[in-house]
Specification:
The complex is a heterodimer of chains A (about 160) and B (about 210). In chain A, helix 3 packs parallel to helix 4 (about 125-135). Chain A is globular and about 45 Å long. Chain A is built from 5 helices and 9 strands. Chain A has about 160 residues and is an alpha/beta fold. By secondary structure, chain B is of the alpha+beta class. Helices cover about 35% and strands about 15% of the residues of chain B. Chain B has helices spanning about 15-20, 35-45, 55-60, 90-110, 135-140, 165-175; strands at about 1-5, 85, 115, 120-125, 150-155, 160, 185-190, 200-205. Classes of the chains: A alpha/beta (about 160), B alpha+beta (about 210). Chains A and B meet through strand 2, strand 3, helix 1 and helix 5 of A and helix 2, helix 3, strand 2 and helix 4 of B.
C-alpha cells in the first residue's frame, strides 16, 4: 500500500508529499480513529495545541467521545467504520500498559488489517519497541523534543528510531 | 519525515506570540512561515541535501517562525531519505475531520437527515410541551408522513424530521397558528453526525 509519489502533489488543503505511510493513506480517506489515551505528558512543549480539557488531564477520548470503557472505544470505531487507529496524547508511553491493551483490543476485534500508528515524544527502548510490535503496532512516529533537533544523532532517539 | 504545520490554539497562543509567531491570515490558525519552512525542506530534499530536522529548521524564511515545523522522525536517523510529507493545518479540517464525519454520517444518518459536504447532518427539530408530544406525532401521521419520516423523543420533548417538512410546518403555523399544540418552536439544526454531536448551527424558523 505504501506509495512513493513521483511528484510533489499539493491537495486542496495545501499539503503535499513525496511519500505517505499507510497511516496517512487511511487518514486521507477519513478512516482513522483518533484514540487519545492520556492527556498526561512529562514534557512542556511551547507549541502544544491541546485544549484545556485534555492538556495534562488523565482522560481518554476516541475521536470526540469520552471513553469510560472498552465498549466506548469499539462503538466509536464501528460508528465510523474505522480501518485504523492513531494513538496519541499527551504522551502515550506514560500509559504503556494501556497502549498495549488498546492495540490488542482493536486488533482482536477488527483483525490485523486494522492499521495502528502511535505518536510519541519519548525514546522507547528496544524492549518497549518489541512489545509494541508484538502487540501489533504498525507504525510509530517520533516527535523528539525541539531542543534535541540539532543533535538527534547523539540522543537516545537515534537508537529508538533505528530499532523501530 | 512528516512535517506538521504549526498552528495556534487557545492553549499555545501566548507562548507562540511571546516567541514572535504570528497568524498567517484571519481565516485559519496557521502560523506564518511554517509552510514556507516545509517547502524549504522539500527543496533541500530535491537538492539531495537530506538534512536533519535542525538543518531544515534553519532554512526558514520569516525570522523566528522559520525555526520550527513540529517535525516527526529525523530524516537522517532512519532510511527516510526523500520520504517526506507536509501535513497542513487546513488538511486536518478539510480532509481528516471532514471525511471522517462523512464516513460516520453514512452509518448514522437517519432517513430524514440531510448529509452535507462537510459531513454534518441537517434536520428540523420541533419542540413542544410533553403533554402535546403524542398529539403532534398523531398529527404528522394524519398528514400521511411515514413512520420513518420523523422521530418523537420523549426525553427531549422534540420531534425530529426532514428539513423540508419542518419548513412546511413553519409556514402552515405562521398562517394558521399552532395553538392546538401549545407552545411550539421549530428549528433547523446542523450538527456532527452522532448523538449529542457538536451543533454547528441552529436557526429558529418558528
Amino acid at each position: 500500500m505504501k506509495k512513493e509519489l513521483k511528484v510533489i502533489r499539493p491537495d486542496e488543503s495545501g499539503s503535499y508529499s513525496r511519500f505517505l505511510t499507510d497511516g496517512c493513506l487511511r487518514c486521507r480517506e477519513g478512516s482513522k480513529m483518533v484514540l487519545f489515551v492520556t492527556g498526561l505528558c512529562d514534557k512542556d512543549c511551547f507549541f502544544c495545541p491541546l485544549s484545556v480539557n485534555r492538556k495534562n488531564a488523565d482522560v481518554i477520548f476516541a475521536n470526540e467521545r469520552p471513553v469510560y470503557s472498552d465498549a466506548d472505544v469499539l462503538s466509536e470505531a464501528r460508528l465510523m467504520t474505522a480501518k485504523g487507529t492513531g494513538i496519541t496524547g499527551g504522551e502515550p508511553l506514560l500509559e504503556f500498559a494501556k497502549v498495549i491493551h488498546y492495540i490488542s483490543l482493536l486488533k482482536s476485534e477488527f483483525g490485523k488489517e486494522h492499521h495502528i500508528h502511535m505518536y510519541t515524544s519519548e525514546a522507547p527502548d528496544e524492549n518497549q519497541i518489541r512489545d509494541l510490535a508484538q502487540a501489533g503496532l504498525d507504525e510509530i512516529r517520533f516527535h523528539p523534543p525541539y531542543e534535541m533537533w540539532g543533535r538527534l544523532n547523539e540522543s537516545p532517539y537515534q537508537k529508538s528510531i533505528l530499532s523501530a | 519525515m512528516n512535517l506538521n504545520e504549526l498552528e495556534f490554539s487557545d492553549t499555545n497562543a501566548e507562548e507562540l506570540k511571546k516567541r514572535g509567531y504570528v497568524l498567517a491570515d484571519n481565516e485559519s490558525n496557521t502560523v506564518l512561515g511554517s509552510a514556507a519552512v516545509a517547502k524549504a525542506a522539500f527543496d533541500a530534499v530535491d537538492a539531495g541535501n537530506i538534512g536533519n530536522a535542525g538543518n531544515i529548521g534553519n532554512a526558514g524564511s520569516s525570522g523566528d517562525a522559520g525555526n520550527i515545523g513540529n517535525a516527526g522522525s529525523s530524516g537522517d536517523a532512519g532510511d527516510a531519505g526523500g520520504k517526506i510529507n507536509f501535513c497542513s493545518s487546513r488538511y486536518k479540517d478539510t480532509i481528516q475531520l471532514r471525511l471522517r464525519l462523512l464516513r460516520t454520517a453514512q452509518t448514522t444518518a437517519r432517513e430524514f437527515d440531510e448529509i452535507t459536504e462537510d459531513g454534518t447532518v441537517i434536520y428540523g427539530q420541533i419542540r413542544v410541551a410533553a403533554s402535546f408530544l403524542e398529539k403532534f406525532a398523531a398529527f404528522l401521521t394524519e398528514m400521511e408522513l411515514p413512520k420513518t419520516a420523523f422521530i418523537a423523543d420523549t426525553k427531549k420533548n422534540t420531534i425530529e424530521t426532514a428539513c423540508g417538512i419542518a419548513e412546511e410546518l413553519a409556514e402552515i403555523f405562521a398562517e394558521e397558528g399552532s395553538d392546538e399544540f401549545g407552545a411550539v418552536e421549530i428549528r433547523i439544526i446542523e450538527r456532527y453526525p452522532f448523538e449529542n454531536g457538536f451543533v454547528v448551527g441552529s436557526e429558529q424558523i418558528y
